[in-house]
């Protein structure tokens, strides 16, 4: 009997080992299946993510179906001395470089860009830095300086920041003409009132940080044909002004400009870029607008010393790219996001900007 018992024991032991092996295999198969269907996906391929986003669009029609408030018809500018001043102001906005650029006929005080490069159609295109409410809202208190800013100071702020240049004298013929044009555009708009289409379009924050790497692919696909592979823009044949402005480098806006905030640039390109886009027929998805703005504003550009900006640091926008801040979020998060946690930490902040 003893040999039979030994044989039986060996058989049972072998069976147990087989059962344990089968159980282990079953557990492994179940783990693989559960991971495949319920576990985290494979690590994202940055190149694939960039290519996928760059190919997207145009998006479905947006919810902005109202037409932007139209500007007055230039044909109604009177044939008087006052009318000539208004027309000169419009020309200064549309062709700033001809008068004030590096080869300007009046002065050489700006970088060669035109005001119109950022304020499209001489400041009249809807949600493309539209000027129609300027006369109605200035002078006004601005948090950036914590002072009441006049229309002349606002114009000079653009010259010094967006055009990386020098200020005009308030009494100069050019400043008086620009102000006359802005007042003409705002005729009939009650003081303190904005009209539909002014400023920039609303744009919800991304649920993640903006991504300059993805934005580079979006730029190559959507923007490079006009602004050039190095963002240098395209000059007109006479070489005196830009048909398509430089987006970075020594001839672009400096880091004190409003468009250096990623949210402002994203809102602008969403409503106005690429060429032919409008706020109600955009060509970029929200993510493309945010990411290409992050890419453009991660490139080198002139620096402007701004020691008097934001004296009350608690009033800095969530995406102001330079500290110090009144919160504990990093400078990088303030520049690239995600912005919603910063907004949530501020009483009264909204989910969109």
TrEMBL record:
Task: Give this protein's Gene Ontology molecular function annotations.
Answer: electron transfer activity; heme binding; metal ion binding
Query: What SUPFAM superfamilies does the annotation carry?
Result: Cytochrome c
| Basic and acidic residues bias (residue ranges) | 309-319
The residues that cross the membrane are 12-38
Residue segments, region Disordered:
45-80, 301-327
Superkingdom per UniProt: Bacteria
Q: Quote the InterPro entries the UniProt record gives.
A: Cyt_c-like_dom (IPR009056), Cyt_c-like_dom_sf (IPR036909), Cytochrome_c-type_DH (IPR051459)
**PROSITE patterns associated with the record:** CYTC (PS51007)
**Keyword terms:** Heme, Iron, Membrane, Metal-binding, Transmembrane, Transmembrane helix
Q: What range(s) does the Cytochrome c domain occupy?
A: 210-300
Where is the sequence biased in composition, kind Low complexity? Answer: 67-80
The entry's protein name is Cytochrome c
